[in-house]
Amino acid sequence: MPEEFTHEDPRIVELRSVREKIRQGGGAERIKIQHAKGKLTARERLDILLDPGTFNELEPYITHQGDEMGIANEKFMGDGVVTGYGQIDGRTIYVYAQDFTVYGGTLSEMQSHKICRVMDLAVRNGAPIIGLIDSGGARIQEGVKSLGGYAEIFRRNAQYSGVIPQISLMLGPCAGGAAYSPALTDLIIMVEEKSFMFLTGPEVIKTVTGETTDAESLGGAAVHLGISGTAHLATESETDALLLARRLLGYFPSNNVENPPYQPPVDDPLRMDEVLNHIVPLSPSESYSMHEVILHVIDQGSFIEIQPTWAPNAIVGLARIGGHSVGIVAQEPSAMAGVIDINSADKMARFVRMCDCFNIPLVTFVDSPGFLPGIGQEHGGVIRHGAKLLYAYSEATVPKVTVITRKAYGGAYVVMSSKFLGTDVTYAWPSAEIAVMGAEGAVNILFKKQITSAADPAQERQSLVEDYRDRFNNPYYAARAGYVDDIVEPRETRPKIIASLAALRDKVSIAPARKHGNIPV
Ligand code: HXC
Q1: How close is the Cα of 133 to the center of ligand 1, in Å?
Q2: 458 CA distance to ligand 1 middle (Å)
Q3: Which residues make Cβ contacts (< 8 Å) with residue 229, sequence separation at least 6?
Q4: How far apart are CA 390 and CA 32, in angstroms?
Q5: All domains of the chain, ordered by start, with CATH?
Q6: Which of 49, 246, 479, 486 has the largest count of CB atoms under 10 Å?
Q7: Handedness of CA 106, 111, 112, 116 (dihedral sign)
Q8: Alpha carbon nearest to ligand 1 atom 29, residue
Q9: Residues 199 and 223 sit within 8 Å (Cβ to Cβ)
């Protein structure tokens, strides 16, 4: 080795030592505590999330500029968040990972500058942003500066919504603002028993309302997946959550002017699936699994169901059909007969809008007896919530294909991507029943007097019901009137959908210019 290379330049030695210090975040002791809680550090998480060797960090030298409550001299480089860019499956993404070992990952003014910077770079470059959230919320010592910092992030979450995909992974106790920013993003993934989301924690609740609770029962994954509907997916481990985020991104384009990436299908696009011909029972009151229908139609192994345990009477999820990314929306007849209620309307409406933002075509499977009747639903605003679904389908300009497998009664027919809401192609199975309402209900309303005055009212009702069924409980009346494009054998559904989507790939649909619509929130 030449003489000049035998001694290290002290400036490089210093840089290396500073870099090592940066890697230590809040210090070895706090990293130990993080590991003891079964959690990874911010950098370990990034190693799993990104393609190996692709992470490039930005602004790791930034420290907080606070001087209140004794923190002026306690500074950690990076200030509790690791930011930068890297790749997932060779595509650029921007990322920020909060470092719980520094002030509990809390948001300071400078931390918010770092996060906003990667958000801005992401949108300028048309690349997705992923947030790895592990934070106690606003940093108390910075007062209004940390609150303002959150406002800066929220504003960007909102303004960049529908421009680039935003995904949040909840990897710790995410309090206050740390819960609100994710709520503005497209998808939230939680880790069972490791991540929590709440605006105010158990201690504050005890003080204010006197209620006793703990973090898990207040805002754990089971709560936000099953009760509040705030989160979209949960995994057993952090590693699984990070790998799921990688997989999810494969269904999204990098931004709203690109199409989702195509993957050559591993499943035959022309596959006719005989099983489909035997799923819908002959009796209209017997249930079956729409999940099974979906799994037999899509490319095998491609379904990622979103919000599987909240409002299970509706199904939403991402899949591939013929190698192309699609959004699946459906009813599950084996859960509350597939009725549409407040929560399922919200669930479907939000998903439809997310797919439309990102040019993901919609495939809708319909089997619903209609909206759920009841005082609770009416007083809870089922009209307003159902209107969101009407709004979402009506404004969606992506290719839309509908398959009516069985019941499409009344409001359910209309809201579930019906032809005159702008759906491109509508198929019905021979088992489809398309009518204003079911036979019994209709006969009771239309023929009350005729039934009561008949010699044998039961016999009279039965014959009227059968007549109604012959007339409306089939797809032929709707097809003759042009409300259904074709009646297909269930086994033909996959190739029919693939052909329709291929024919719709270059669809252009220009809406009138406006600032934005006024969706009934
Ligand atoms: C400053 C904080 C902090 C905070 C935690 N820390 N929260 N520092 N501001 N908000 C620090 C702790 O002092 C500790 O520092 C380290 O982070 C780890 O915290 P622990 O309590 O030891 O950890 P743990 O037991 O795991 O509990 C984590 C926690 C709890 C559940 C997050 O710390 C907590 O409840 N914090 C307060 C949460 C909160 O109410 N935040 C404000 C939300 S209001 P050391 O030095 O010991 O490592 C908000 C407004 C936004 O965000 C408005 C949105 C609309």
Answers
A1: 13
A2: 68
A3: 307, 310, 311, 343, 346, 347
A4: 51
A5: 3-249 (3.90.226.10), 274-437+474-503 (3.90.226.10), 439-472 (no CATH)
A6: 49
A7: negative
A8: 136
A9: no
Q: Ligand 1: which residue has its CA nearest to atom 19?
A: 104
How far is the centre of ligand 1, averaged over its atoms, from the C-alpha of 138 (Å)?
8
Give me the count of residues in the chain: 521
Q: How much is the pLDDT for 346?
A: 98
- Stated as kind and residue range, the H or E segment containing 326 is strand 324-331
Distance in angstroms (rounded) separating the CA atoms of residues 297 and 35: 43
Q: Return the bridge partners of 170, or none.
A: 133, 190
Instruction: Please tell me the distance from the alpha carbon of residue 80 to that of residue 105, in angstroms, as a whole number.
Output: 5
pLDDT above 90 coverage of the chain, percent: 88
pTM value is 0.95
CA-nearest residue for atom 33, ligand 1, is 136
Is 289:334 a contact under the CB 8 Å cutoff?
A: yes
**In whole angstroms, what is the distance from residue 5 CA to residue 392 CA?**
65
Average pLDDT on 222-242 reads: 97
Cα 123 to Cα 55, 133, 168, distances in angstroms: 18, 20, 16
Ligand 1 atom with minimal separation from the 30 CA:
48
| CB 337 within 8 Å of CB 369 | yes
**Phi/psi of residue 317, nearest 5 degrees:** 180, 165
Ligand 1 atom 26, closest CA: 173
How far apart CA 387 and CA 385 sit, in angstroms, is 5
Ligand 1 probe mutation, 106, 174, 214, most atoms within 8 A of CB: 106
Give the Å distance between the CA of 164 and the centre of ligand 1.
30
Query: For position 4, what pLDDT does the model report?
Result: 67
Integer CA distances (angstroms), 6 to 2, 3, 11, 358, in order: 7, 6, 15, 55
Within 6 A (CB) of ligand 1 lie 30, 103-104, 106, 136-141, 147, 150, 173, 175-177, 180, 201
Tell me: pLDDT of 381 over 80: yes
The distance of Cα 462 from the centroid of its chain, to the nearest Å, equals 45
Calculate how far, in angstroms, residue 22's C-alpha sits from the geometric centre of ligand 1. Answer: 21
| Alpha-carbon distances, residue 246 vs 47, 133, 163, 182, 417 (angstroms) | 12, 16, 19, 17, 30
**Ligand 1 closest atom vs CA 139:** 9
Q: pLDDT tens for residues 416-458?
A: 999 999 999 999 999 999 999 888 888 999 999 999 998 999 9
Task: In whole angstroms, give the CA distance from residue 349 to residue 392.
Answer: 6
Strand, helix or coil at 189? strand
DSSP-assigned states of every residue in 47-100:
HHHSPTT--EEE-TT------STT-TT---TTTTEEEEEEEETTEEEEEEEE-T
Residues involved in catalysis: 176-177, 411-412
DSSP 403-452: EEEEEEEHHHHHHTT-GGGT-SEEEE-TT-EEESS-HHHHHHHHTHHHHH
Query: Strand 91-98 vs strand 129-133: parallel, antiparallel, or unpaired?
Result: parallel
Q: Is the pLDDT higher at 279 or at 65?
A: 279
